[in-house]
Amino acid sequence: AKCGADGNFSKGEIVPFGPIALSPSAGVLNYGQGLFEGLKAYRKANGSVLLFRPEENAIRMINGSDRMCMPAPTVEQFVDAVKQTVLANKRWVPPTGKGSLYIRPLLIGSGAILGLAPAPEYTFLIYVSPVGNYFKEGLAPINLIIEDNFHRAAPGGTGGVKTIGNYASVLKAQRTAKEKGYSDVLYLDAVHNKYLEEVSSCNIFVVKGNTISTPAIEGTILPGITRKSIIEVAKSKGYKVEECPVSVDELLDADEVFCTGTAVVVSPVGSITYLGKRVEYDGNQGVGVVSQQLYTSLTSLQMGLAEDRMGWTVHLN
Ligand code: PMP
What we know:
Elements: E1 2-4, H1 27-31, E2 34-36, E3 39-43, E4 49-52, H2 54-67, H3 75-88, E5 100-109, E6 121-131, E7 142-146, H4 164-168, H5 171-179, E8 184-188, E9 196-199, E10 203-208, E11 211-214, H6 225-236, E12 240-243, H7 248-252, E13 256-261, E14 265-274, E15 277-280, H8 289-302, E16 313-316
Parallel strand pairs: 7-8, 7-14, 11-12
Antiparallel strand pairs: 1-6, 2-5, 3-4, 3-5, 4-16, 5-6, 8-9, 10-11, 10-13, 13-14, 14-15
Helix pairs in contact: 2-3
The structure holds 4'-deoxy-4'-aminopyridoxal-5'-phosphate.
Residues 38, 198, 201-203, 222, 224-227, 260-262 line the site of 4'-deoxy-4'-aminopyridoxal-5'-phosphate.
């Protein structure tokens, strides 16, 4: 669907996957006016398909669109477009337990603009792709490195919204970490270089006794929908959950550490390397009991295996 600066989107249509035409001076290509989302559709054993909290993705895109000076589809338009795209591609949703259909909504400044200013026209599109389980054997611990000479976001910047440029800026840090054999980078805050922020594409949680802490949302980390959901699930299981500044010292002293995100779901952290020192979280071969419990609770909701008392799932027929 397309719209002008007024934000009145045209009715969308389902078209085969393929290239889209853009002016060389499109806002997105020159000034990075782009926002995306990511969510998954799972297939239930009876063949029906379900979505997890799609309206949360719509709200996050709307919040981000203000920061990026872009109009956005309404929650209703967004969710309806996601549903229609998934239904049109239902045959690509893998069988239960064999993965999911990844859904990528994208909002771009598609209009031509030469001087630095918001684009005069916007395009909202959605594409989908089947994806396997992130880890073949379910849960597997990941090894993170704190790269304190790279930062992902600074106060007043765009770290809190899902804009395309944030991902360009992490590529080098991520490649450096992978070359050294780590799974990903854990970023610290840019002001004190001391408080945890997040990983390139997931949020982080630290467990100590019965308390689970995660960095507060203050504009420099992405407000993850898995993060928000895990906070509620953990509280319902009797854990004390704190959203607050979490220092590196607390991280290195934790009983368990795990990451959350649409792609990784809940991923236990097996080790953290900081200033050349490696700290290992033993757990049960790196999979702590809390991570395991929250992973099981969340995935059974997402896959429609448990009763959804939270009203988080949207069932498509
Ligand atoms: N942080 C970043 C930087 C991300 O890209 C993502 C993935 N969207 C997340 C956290 C996790 O967010 P969610 O749980 O909504 O997938």
